[in-house]
Amino acid sequence: MNKKRYLLLLYCLLITMLTGCWDNVPIEDRGFVIGSAIDLKDGKVDGNYDLTLTNQFVVPPGLNSPMNGGSGGKAFMNLSGSGDSVFAIDQEMASLTSKMPFFEHLKLLVVSDELLETPHLFADVLDVFVRDKEMRRGVKVVAAKGEAKDILGIQPENEQLPAVYINNLLEVSMKKTNLFKPMHVGDIHQMLLTNSSFIIPYVIAAKNKVDYKGGAIFHGYEDKLVGFLDEKEMTALNLVNGDTHGGTITFTYDGDLITFKINNAKSDVKLDTKDPESINITVDIGVEGGIAEVFGNKNLNNSQTLSEIEKEISKQIETMTGQTIARTQKEMNADIFAFDQKLNERHYHTWQKIKDNWDHGENLFAKSNIRVNAKAHVRTAGASEKVEGNRKE
Amino acid sequence: MKWFTYADPKIDDKEIMIIVPSMLIGGGILTFPRFVADETVGSDGWIVILIGGMLTLLVAWTVAKLATMFPNQSFLSYASAIVSKPVAVILTFLLGTISMLIASYVVRNIANTAKEYLFEQTPMEVIALTFLLVVIYAISSSRIGLFRLNMLFFPFIFLITIIIMLLNIKWFDFGDLLPMFQTSFTGYIKGTGSMITSYVGLGILLFYLALADRPKRAPKMVSIGVCIVMFFYFLVFITCIGVFGHAGTANLLNPTVELAKQVEIPGGIFERAEVVFYVIWIMAIFNTTTMAFDIAVLALHSIFKKANKMTFIFILSPLIYLISMIPENLVELNHFGTFVSYVSAGTTVFVTILLLIIAKIRGMKQVE
Fold this sequence. Notes:
Shape of chain B: globular
Distance between the termini of chain B: 26 Å
Low-confidence stretches of chain A: 67-71
Oligomer: heterodimer
Mean pLDDT of chain B: 86
Structural class of chain B: mainly alpha
Distance between the termini of chain A: 117 Å
Order of helices and strands of chain B: HHHHHHHHHHHHHH
Number of domains of chain A: 2
Strand content of chain B: under 5%
Radius of gyration of chain B: 21 Å
CATH topology of chain B: Amino acid/polyamine transporter I
Strand content of chain A: 25-35%
Helix content of chain B: over 70%
Mean pLDDT of chain A: 82
Shape of chain A: globular
Radius of gyration of chain A: 27 Å
Number of domains of chain B: 1
């Protein structure tokens, strides 16, 4: 009898175990945030910067497959809030929408150039994207010319969600043209930790698309945006870094315009640190590709013409990379070619001595001699020799 | 092939081998890349992992040698034969207490981490209690069941960890592995010092090897077990360095969790792999806790032979729970963890060496 009583008590206690999960949030109540944009509202307010955060929420009823026919509604909703702290704005946003913001599926972070130009602010803003457990390090980061929230407001025609559109654009860009290497929150965290300079893809909002403007150079030590690279300079940067599987080089040969398509580029950086005051850096670039377009009616399929064209391309690469390097050395003093990382990797002891004088202090980066040797290989000149017969002179 | 009989009280070679990784891989797996990267340069941490592993191998081998000098005798009985019964009781009690402290630390660690990443609203106390209840359930039945659970869980833990590492290849940068061999000597020493805390728990072998089926092979099997742990840590560490870089690894609180969070299969088919990772991590930590708790019970039971095993479980459970609730925050918890690790490692080494030396002095031969 006694035992039965105990059992009864036990069963009563066990009922409490059936109440379910404390953290149960029905999926309908979650507001999936897929893109965030941060703008600097205006200057400092009570010693802190006034930020505007725009979150892009997915509106599932608006997401329709072509089979069902569109319901006409938008598939996303952009909400903005202002305040000092990014996280506080996120929390406030819960009262603006009926759903709890949920960041596990965040794909894109857009920051305005104005914010990037303010020293230290970018690193401060990024903190929550590294610290918060819902955030992932694979979130892509782009810099926007003008208002960052405009980027999330574009109406792409082939995608329903602007953030997904830009995310896919960055991925396709990396595979096809390789012009813009997407920067992820994790990469930036790593760069900021070592005070290295880096490039963020720089975009501008158009009506139904975004336009690439090039790359925004973020100086690691000064902790702010110091300049921009245009598309040609981005190609040069990628050639120096050697991780290119795309991109084009246009040049004139014998009065005619020729476009060379890069299929594969490799670079080899040699560092000579005998004299730390003036480090000699030699970059050997090997490029492989084909002729994609020829204006005029030359037949390029003979070895002499091809070797002349190869020389022309090599010269072209040396000029464009040379100019880009000179510009980053003199104008921005920002080592975006990751020479600092290579010094750390290969000349650890020298680097430990000079790291405080690399892109600041004595500016050893600006003082170093950087030489580029390029070697181009034209593997093919295309499917046809020419498009038309002899031209009237 | 050996047929499984439920009441078979012996553990065979494979089970001995698996005990070691099951016990050693626990809370440390999440955080150790940070501690190691903190003290070393570039990817030099693997040397630290190797040195730590070698030391552990040495200890494990010695413990196994000692335990198998007296085949199928419990720790208390052979310790009594070497150093009188009262001293043996004290040693047993000491090892049991430390095992209990390990169990407390691990319970709190899992509760904290689970609250941080999985159950935001659930009180940490409830998570700890629920976990502890499952552990109690596991150790209430036959001891041999724990080893079977180890055998069952380990392949999953191993395979899923390797899959998560492989899926991170997309982010892997070989340049981050450089520079190599640039760490100073003190860096290696300090790194090994913190690495030791992830190799703790060998004390359980002193007790469990009494159940060994073929004691002669135990030292070899235990050594293989340590090698598995070493390989495991090596893999996780190198992946962390390659993916986050040295600076990133040294700054992330739980580098291994971040690795799991990074996994993304193109096309958005599969994101949030950390959920799978947590499942296997909790399995790993469950094994650690059950064995630590079981050793505490076993130690007490061997001292007070007349009492029922369940009595000890009911005495120890509230104790473990209360001790685990003492640390106020993560910093205190980490101090507690470091303290427990060093004390446990120190005691295991001390007891083993003490017993071995006295046994040699007294000229005790291996009992056949």
